[in-house]
Write a structure and sequence with these properties.
Helix 5 packs parallel to helix 11 (268-284) and helix 7 crosses helix 11 (268-284). The chain has helices spanning 15-26, 66-69, 72-84, 94-100, 106-117, 122-132, 144-156, 159-163, 201-218, 227-249, 268-284, and strands at residues 2-3, 32-35, 38-39, 50-53, 57-60, 89-92, 102-103, 141-142, 179-186, 193-196, 256-263. The protein is α/β, with parallel strands linked by helices. The strands form 3 sheets. The chain has a 7-stranded mixed sheet. Helix 1 (15-26) links the parallel strand 1 (2-3) and strand 2.
Length: 288
């Protein structure tokens, strides 16, 4: 099961809510892949916190990833139900996706995605081309959903799964993505999604805040040009102040901890090559 995007559907009044809960209770769900989360010690370069107005409120904290922030309350309820039924959670953090796959030019796009998209339907392929190819100069593309989908497929390939599709000739390598047991510290008001090895929420939050404070300190004496850069510093300090206050007010309940397996690294080139091999053989099999 893949959790990318808004969890607004996970509300008691929706049909899919009851379906998900039955699925969790069935014990048949092998794992849930979450594209989201920020590593507590590598966070500050990724996301700039954004406050609407000083003293008014926060739009987005730097430790909140969008898939979880779209509907933070339902996302928290979803995590809670997964934990209740011991559904394995596997995280692919924003740190990992950016390291694994940021497309900066046309050639990178083709070399990385062609092995997967060469059998795609024309409309599907046209959509990828329209989004990823134009205007590379102004902004590199970060193919979050593409990489997460590739990781999901890559990680779920097993010999028994392929056997009934006639893919007996393929030599499967050790393809399970390397992962480490960690915790996802989540807040269902702000969408905070910190992935950490720290045993407590406070330690995870403090590790994250140190990255912000280090960045603030490194630019303290620099000439900060432009309104946007000055605002970014102000927002980072406001985020540190907010997290500090909330942790002091409710040190136990502010961040809920969920056990996860965090994917450590991806070799996108190796994954796409293997998946192309699987797709080719499966498509040519009698059951393809």
């Amino acid at each position: 099961m893949d959790m990318n995007g808004s969890m607004a559907f996970y509300r008691p009044e929706t049909p899919i809510y009851a379906w998900c809960r039955r699925l969790f209770a069935s014990g048949k769900l092998r794992g849930l892949y979450i594209m989201g989360g920020i590593l507590d010690s590598e966070a500050s370069p990724l996301i700039s916190p954004f406050f609407v107005k000083p003293g008014v409120g926060v739009n987005r904290l730097g430790c909140a990833t969008m898939n979880q922030l779209y509907a933070a309350g339902p996302a928290g309820a979803f995590f809670e139900d997964c934990a209740t039924h011991n559904v394995p959670l596997i995280t692919a953090t924003s740190n990992l996706i950016i390291k694994a796959f940021t497309i900066t030019n046309d050639d990178e796009y083709h070399s990385a995605l062609t092995p997967i998209l060469h059998r795609a339907k024309p409309l599907f392929r046209a959509g990828f081309d329209a989004y990823y190819i134009p205007d590379f100069v102004s902004k590199p593309k970060k193919a979050y959903d593409v990489v997460s989908a590739i990781a999901l497929l890559y990680d779920m390939i097993h010999t028994d799964t392929l056997a009934h599709r006639g893919v007996s000739s393929i030599t499967l390598r050790a393809i399970r993505l390397p992962r480490t047991p960690k915790r996802l510290y989540f807040n269902n008001e702000y969408g905070i999604s910190l992935v950490s090895s720290a045993p407590t929420a406070r330690e995870a939050a403090e590790a994250y805040m140190r990255t912000l404070q280090e960045q603030l300190a490194s630019t303290a004496d620099a000439v900060v040009e432009g309104l946007a850069k000055n605002q970014r510093r102000q927002h980072m300090q406001a985020e540190v102040d907010l997290l500090t206050r909330k942790l002091n007010e409710d040190p136990v309940g502010f961040l809920k901890a969920y056990e996860v397996m965090d994917i450590d690294e991806m070799d996108v080139s190796a994954m796409t090559s293997l998946l192309k091999e699987v797709v080719d053989q499966a498509s040519s099999s009698p059951l393809g």
